[in-house]
Write a structure and sequence with these properties.
Two copies of one chain form a homodimer. The first copy, chain A, is of the alpha/beta class. Helices cover about 25% and strands about 25% of the residues of chain A.
Chain lengths: ~550, ~550
């Protein structure tokens, strides 16, 4: 092999903060503190620069090294979006250890499993989670120290034998530290997926995957981040690398604004305005709350010009409201923890610019087209490629330099599917269509799709129709055993309080909205539907509960 | 080392065209043909899509393989910007061979040296260069075949024993070809720098460096390319990867418009308008011609909103004219062949948005701040870091994953300078300042800077002042021996035809414009100044010619 004669500089996470510090040294990082304001009102907002953050990240790396943290050791965090968490992103990964963001919203038994499975040697936590930590600590014997992310004055009143103070650890170091020149394939960070079945599975990112993903995330067709932006990540830093924002913003020198624990509409709105935020990112639920606040208080956004919406499908009405009422462009994005997380963003192509508002909205409502680096395809049950016609749907597979090859410690099975060339593709667990322009739209989860007489029915489509009925609060559709068709759709519905609705009325509501063979065979009313800790519909539970349900058509 | 569990997908040039074909398959590539229109007017413009280009690039790869081209073999091009050249970029590199773009504007003896040094096994050439090829061929014995980039009907009437027809070669193949999954460090492309001294030196890029550089080039703070853009690269494809545009545009699915050989103002303007070009890129000379045409004909740009200007420093007046008279934003960029080529782009930061037009123009007139991946610093004669205050100037060094480590075959010496950490930095040969915001401004070439009594004087600054005098057509400043100060500035001037100007008047013109000790010690008038084939001032020749010059101050 003839090798190119180019400097073999590794792609490292430490290079991102070094770059930000050198070339955008005075760009700000502003945080709403978890400690909140002091009696005199000070301390509610913390403000410093990339240059300061770079020094503190190196102090943190020194402190962790002094505690005995070595290459490849895992260090966990239970924390909101704030400057100390940002320092942890760089200090831990930068020194060669693995930064493990833990989602504090999971059930305590899941947290214990995750912390022990990851073998976190130290855990950093925000004050909010002190009571949680007190509960977890006895079951997490491998954790040598619990580091409260605060100063001595604010230390929580909990009794833990191995409680440490973040600010004291950092203050003891001088920051004269050179980031090690690691192999770029070195593990940098770890994040567990909380599926609806089985134990959480660990996704282990590398320095290389993180930096390449940050490049892709910052592109004009993705999140489009520049040194002229002020980014407020609402998406928690414990969700899949906060969608790369702590990395992508350092890469381009964008100002960062961290909201801390205050994620209600009012707090967010005030921070957007006070810090002149130009772009944000989060899940639909958060934006719903923000839009409700803005609507009630008749507020407009004076600087925000776009927002990234992902995590779950963004309702078209939300896109419309943001764009038409608030002048805020919506970047509808899709990805998953196993994808670092970005896969697609629904930005328009040149050919779409002359379309009507409604036509553009229809495109933006899809999950979007691939960013270079995350290739995708849809396949049938036998793994054969399906056409990109925007109608046929199949299992969605992805492949690229920031996509999982296997789970931490191999626990979670060998997920990849090999194609005819021997290349591994990751099955997303989603069922989707792809249109001729490459725009992907998720129609269902693979395990939820109803397989009836060899054909597939999307449960999400059927649920969306039910929720469109004025008397329906929430709806779920599952496949129910049918002796002739294998499975047929069963609709399970929670009515709005006080609403009147019969089974027959609701089934009739589907007429003309879907093909005849898609119509649910039955409808059942319940008081509530089961959910996971992160708010997803728990269809496994429903399938269990309705295992013996006899369809009238059977 | 704990390795991340992420798919180890190599960064390959073939992945770019595969992506464009799959996800932006119908985005267009439009070329003004070198053959020109037929008698019936057809054939002046060639139009196809990324999907078509992908197929033809694979056919070309098959054709070259059939000719015996193997991994690492060099295949040269002497060609304008057009679709066949684009196919060569992907077909040659994609198959594992090395795509060697040769600059047809060099002197024939340089071309012979370069083609023989590179050991090009095949040469692709545009019709324009048929007479040149006929001249070169006898001296380039290693070239097994000269491939005319045209169809049989347009084959040039030259007598070469090994003349081949591009379209015939391509037509003989079916395009059913899988791109090899190469090691990403594999050499992909080769480009020679034509310095002012010594033999041209070969810069050997890799697949990895090219793809990472394309990511960086497409970023919002760099060239900001998206799927909504129509890019017309005026910069020739034989100049340092055409500034990455053939790669970056495929990465994001931007429409490409290739101007062929017609680079005059009128032809470019008409193509801009006809194809709704939104962004372009080229050297100041080309833009001067375009602006003259637009000015004379009172034309405006109806779709172009920005243009990249690099290759040599862009005069502030040109930035002002583009922005204020034509509403076209200027992206002033700097780089070099050894840098793939991008290093800095002078885009504004958030803090600059509130500045006045004049203040913004002053920032844009600098070469700009680093894109992530191309770090830089300035050092003194001993290699010590100099401050970033926008005043002190020193040798500019760069480092990063798309920057040269050494020249092809090791010929050109070991260019890197090691820092105290043992990391290699490439000396650009430029002398520059860097301001506190990281904006770099080139003040001179290292070998041209005048070292007087331990201090440095920028010859470019002194030349710019002379050219500002209404009677001066062109000026050069060189260091001239001085017994006390080692060197002092000597000004060498070509007067405008018919202009009257004395030595004393011109020296007096410097008063108040520079520090006293910067003032030239002498001034000499000449009829013309020596230049290289690419139009650069040949100061080595001047230093030779004025070696014995006795300064009046000596």
């Amino acid at each position: 092999m003839l090798r190119g004669l180019i400097q073999e500089v590794p792609l490292l996470i430490s290079s991102l903060i070094t770059h930000a510090s050198r070339h955008h040294g005075d760009a700000e990082i502003v945080s709403r503190t978890v400690e909140g304001p002091a009696a005199d009102g000070s301390g509610a907002i913390h403000r410093y620069t990339y240059r300061d953050a770079h020094k503190r990240a190196r102090q943190l790396a020194q402190a962790l090294a002094r505690l005995g943290v070595k290459d490849g050791d895992r260090v966990g965090t239970l924390a909101w979006n704030g400057y100390r968490h940002f320092e942890a992103f760089y200090g831990i990964s930068g020194m060669g250890a693995v930064m493990h963001t833990v989602n504090p919203r999971l059930f305590p038994e899941q947290l214990v499993y995750i912390i022990n499975h990851a073998e976190d040697g130290y855990m950093l936590f925000d004050l909010t989670f002190a009571p949680l930590v007190e509960k977890l600590a006895p079951a997490c014997k491998g954790v040598k120290g619990w580091i409260a992310m605060t100063d001595r004055a604010h230390m929580p009143k909990i009794t833990l034998p191995n409680l440490l103070c973040y600010e004291e650890l950092v203050a003891a170091e001088n920051g004269n530290y050179e980031w090690p020149q690691l192999d770029e394939y070195t593990a940098s960070s770890l994040c567990y997926t909380s599926g609806t079945t089985g134990n959480p599975k660990g996704v282990l990112y590398s320095h290389r995957s993180t930096v390449i993903h940050a490049f892709a995330a910052a592109l004009p067709d993705a999140l489009n981040i520049s040194a002229r932006d002020v980014m407020l990540p609402v998406v928690p830093m414990f969700h899949a690398n906060a969608w790369s924002l702590p990395y992508g913003c350092a890469m381009v020198g964008a100002k960062l604004v961290f909201p801390g624990a205050a994620l209600d509409g009012k707090s967010l709105y005030e921070l957007f305005e006070a810090e002149k935020v130009t772009v944000s990112a989060g899940v639909p639920t958060v934006w719903l709350a923000l839009l409700m606040y803005a609507g009630q208080e008749k507020k407009k956004f004076s600087t925000m010009n776009r927002t990234v919406i992902g995590g779950s499908a963004c309702p078209p009405a939300m896109i419309k409201t943001f764009q038409e009422e608030y002048g805020v462009q919506v970047l509808h994005a899709w990805g998953m923890t196993e994808m670092s997380p970005l896969g697609t963003v629904s930005t328009l192509k040149a050919k779409h610019l002359k379309l009507s508002k409604e036509q553009k909205l229809a495109i933006q409502s899809k999950q979007g087209h691939n960013i270079f680096g995350a290739d995708m395809k849809i396949v049938d049950g036998e793994g054969k490629d399906l056409p990109w016609d925007g109608k046929v749907f199949g299992d969605l597979l992805v492949r690229g330099p920031w996509i999982t090859s296997s789970y931490f410690k191999g626990e979670g099975g060998d997920p990849l599917r090999l194609d005819e060339k021997g290349q591994g593709w990751f099955p997303t667990g989603d069922v989707a269509t792809i249109d001729p322009d490459g725009y992907m739209q998720i129609t269902d989860r693979s395990k939820d799709v109803i397989k009836t007489g060899g054909e597939w029915i999307s449960t999400i489509d059927l649920e969306n129709i039910a929720v469109g009925h004025p008397a329906v609060a929430e709806a779920a559709v599952i496949g129910c055993f049918h002796p002739k068709w294998d499975e047929r759709p069963l609709l399970i519905v929670v009515k709005k309080p006080g609403a009147e609705l019969t089974r027959e009325e609701l089934l009739k509501f589907y007429e003309g909205k879907v093909a005849k063979w898609w119509m649910p065979d039955d409808c059942v009313f319940v008081d509530q539907l089961p959910h996971t800790a992160t708010g997803k519909l728990l269809k496994t539970k429903l399938r269990e509960d309705f295992k013996g349900h006899k369809l009238p058509t059977a």
